Amino acid sequence: MTNRNLRLRRLSRATSALSGRKRGAQPKVVALGGGMGLSASLTALRRITGDLTAVVTVADDGGSSGRLREELGVLPPGDLRKALAALCGDDEWGQTWAQVIQHRFESKGDLHEHAVGNLLIVALWEQLGDHVQALDLVGKLLGAHGRVLPMSAVPLELQALVRGHDPEHPEDIVTVRGQATVALTPGEVQSVHVVPADPPAVPEAVAAVLDADWVVLGPGSWFSSVIPHLLVPELLDALVATKARKVLSLNLAPQPGETEGFSPQRHLEVLGRHAPKLALDVVLADEAAVPDRESLADAAERLGAAVELAPVASPDGVPIHDPELLAAAYDRIFRMHGRIGPWR
Question: pTM, whole model, 2 decimals?
């Protein structure tokens, strides 16, 4: 048995006591992703469960996060901050703190474009020397409706094999380095990987996946926010081993650069190539964003999943998820596709 499998078995035993306790009246949900896609899921999910954990990518190398990462050698805090803000309540306290941690300084000096929440998170990391403890403390301060965890204990570099990154050589495949660069590449991403190649997962994140009722993956930037979770071996092992049901939430439209021209079914095919052992239960898509329902159903079936179509887009036509509609879709999926749940 490999060391990784031994660690996974120990974590499974460690969570068995948690799993054996009497469940509450709501599902235990773990949401994986990063950036605005994860924020959309969390804003919806906190409306239907109070037992919510976000597991966030740590490969960002742009903006304030990239500067702090380069200067201090820390995990990039930006996506963690966005997740915490999304978990803030709709009351005055929650909305005030969400605005505070999202606030960016404007100056002609070194503070320009730094987000307050990034600085707060990094300060607590330095004070406490513990990523998880610091994020839990920030969540307590904000009154967050859930927990936020990094997916790995070390900052990761995202690398992609891209065809046509140089428009003058459209058939050449080159390695593109850095999440910010991958997200904006003008070429066609063939595959992604992370450096280091075998990064350590955060044990609490692995334990949360193993103890969940539902795991939600997506929406979000496919190659730079969604797939990276499948490139952390211990986290992928937990996603394969967990008894939780898994729902993949598709984007409303292809992302310029990264997935330009992708059909909904191609998103599934790409994910399947990166994690061939991972099975899903449900693929959620906006009904207006699926021109070929039969092809999407075939692609989902190859991953073991059924397709649920629902109106989840903002009614104003902007390609963003509506929190109330997305919450209703998740709630219906949890009730219809879950076990005969102890939370119902």
Answer: 0.89
